[in-house]
UniProtKB/TrEMBL annotation:
Pfam family, one: IPK
Entry's Gene Ontology cellular component terms: cytoplasm; nucleus
Record-linked SUPFAM superfamilies: SAICAR synthase-like
Gene: itpka
Record-linked PANTHER family: INOSITOL POLYPHOSPHATE KINASE, INOSITOL-TRISPHOSPHATE 3-KINASE A
Organism: Betta splendens
Residue numbers spanned by region Disordered: 1-77, 91-116, 430-453
Superkingdom to which the source organism belongs: Eukaryota
UniProt keyword Nucleotide-binding, yes or no: yes
InterPro entries: IPK (IPR005522), IPK_sf (IPR038286)
Official protein name in the record: Kinase
Alphabetical UniProt keywords: ATP-binding, Kinase, Nucleotide-binding, Transferase
């Protein structure tokens, strides 16, 4: 979740050349090389792309993406089947303007851009549309195909960013991705080395530089899956930092973008004053999001789901009640009880690890997600991602992660949310909820003190 700001230099980051420490190793790719790699990839793609006419793809074989009318831009990457569809030249896809590879514009853009997320995070189911007619666009304008060598294609076709900020991710070497640098997140990655949580967070490969910008280099959790189903659940009862609350109180800064997002979902959301100023403060928006979704009543919320059939949904802002959440989970896992069991096992392991973790005890974990991934082979995993807003507590202070938040105590409700999440999945399982969780999780058990912004 690193925010805009100016570009970081290695000096800003306190990095000098290649540090000995693996955690702070900076990889560099020479500026200009990317263009060359891109050209090579274009060249290769032109020769390996499935085509009935020698090496070069014909315009009519180019897949694009369609967002259904109710939709905005769902984060969406090309899927394997898209490629297959492209091969027989029968499908055509349109892509929302905010999404990656939207316009079929110049192929000069970086291949990495194909991993970028779109502007709006939600709302659309992507569908295929059969090609009736063809537009003749030169193949070199169609960046959806020309960027990847065949070996790299499969992984990239699988990749999806379900939540978070646009453009935060880039492709990297086989099985890895780059996330925009945040000092806070880097520190967290370094601190979990040696902690009980290590087996549950993506492997961290250090800091990487691309064309003067810095990134956290980490394992791509989707890489080893075959057409994965992916779900992002944001954990905790609170999604903003206490310091954001304090700042907004001291210097309230109503934001129009947040006001617009609020009105888009619920016209009656803003107060009369917010309507007249056409702005809401960040904590106010975040609290509204929390109470509208299941963050407040369950301690987690669903941010997005991508299924193996290529459909992608991030329109869960109002998915709040336990039965509604259970229904979404049920749909996500299909009727596969084996997958549910694997997820439950993994969640129990994560729970044990959290309880044993020194890192967890000493950090306020805000905005972090659990990423659920499974595929048709029966493989199912859950990973802890996004430490962008995970903050160390003052020396000597620890959190229970299970008691209600009151301003000042910095509790995040993570464990309470995890128990509710486990209970939700148990309800999805054919065996129903177990005794243990049934007794200690209850919807709406936690009340939070918002401090009102
Ligand atoms: N290591 C990873 N492997 C595969 N996919 C990942 C990985 N990390 C993140 N993602 C994808 O990217 C999305 C956003 O990740 P993340 O939450 O880290 O981004 P962010 O920009 O910090 O989000 P936010 O703005 O909510 O804090 C996830 O929902 C997931 O789809
Ligand atoms: O999910 P929505 O409704 O799109 O709302 C965004 C979401 O809650 C992000 O977590 C938050 O970023 P942080 O977690 O980094 O605070 C972002 O704040 P931002 O607009 O200030 O980036 C919100 O706009």
């Amino acid at each position: 979740m690193p925010k805009g700001g100016r570009r970081r230099t290695s000096k800003d980051l306190g990095l000098c050349g290649t540090a000995a420490n693996e955690g702070s190793r900076v990889e560099r790719r020479a500026p200009g090389k990317q263009g060359q790699v891109c050209d090579e990839l274009q060249h290769k793609a032109a020769h390996v792309a499935p085509s009935s006419h020698g090496g070069v793809m014909e315009p009519r074989q180019v897949p694009q993406v369609t967002i259904t009318p109710e939709g905005g831009g769902c984060s969406r990457e090309m899927q394997q089947e898209d490629w297959d569809d492209a091969a027989d030249g029968t499908l055509r896809r349109h892509l929302s303007s905010s999404s990656i590879s939207s316009t079929g514009s110049s192929a000069v853009e970086s291949e990495d851009d194909l991993l970028s997320d779109n502007e709006s995070k939600s709302k659309g189911i992507i569908t295929l549309e059969h090609l009736v007619d063809t537009e003749s666009k030169p193949w070199w304008k169609l960046k959806t195909i020309v960027h990847w060598s065949f070996s790299a294609q499969r992984r990239k076709l699988n990749w999806v960013q379900l939540a978070g900020h646009k453009g935060n991710f880039k492709a990297a070497d086989e099985g890895t991705i780059l996330k925009k640098f945040s000092d806070n997140e880097k520190q967290c990655f370094e601190e979990v080395q040696g902690d009980a949580l290590l087996p549950f967070v993506p492997a961290f490969h250090g800091v990487a530089e691309r064309d003067g910008e810095f990134f956290l280099h980490m394992t791509d959790l989707l890489a080893k899956f075959d057409l994965p189903n992916v779900m992002d659940c944001k954990m905790g009862v609170r999604t903003y930092l206490e310091e954001e609350l304090v700042r907004a109180r001291e210097r309230p800064k109503p934001r129009e973008d947040l006001y617009k997002k609020m009105v888009e979902v619920d016209e009656t959301g803003p107060t009369p004053q917010e309507h007249s100023q056409r702005g809401v403060t960040k904590p106010r928006y975040m609290q509204w999001r929390e109470t509208l979704s299941s963050t407040h009543n369950l301690g987690f919320r669903i941010e997005g789901i991508k299924k193996c059939d290529g459909t992608c949904r991030t329109d869960f802002k109002k998915t709040k009640s336990k039965p509604d959440v259970i229904q979404v989970f049920r749909d996500f896992v299909g009727r596969d009880d084996g997958i549910v069991k694997s997820y439950l096992r993994r969640l129990s392991e994560i729970r044990r690890a959290l309880q044993a973790s020194e890192f967890f005890k000493r950090h306020e974990v805000i905005g972090s997600s659990l990423l659920f991934i499974h595929d048709h082979t029966g493989s199912a995993e859950v990973w802890i991602i996004d430490f962008g807003k995970t903050t160390a507590l003052p020396e000597g202070q620890t959190l229970s992660h299970a008691i209600p938040w009151q301003e000042g105590n910095r509790e995040d409700g993570y464990l309470w949310g995890l128990d509710n999440l486990i209970h939700t999945l148990e309800c999805v399982s054919s065996q129903g909820p177990g005794e243990e969780t049934r007794s200690d999780t209850k919807e709406d058990q936690q009340t939070t003190e918002t401090g009102g912004q």
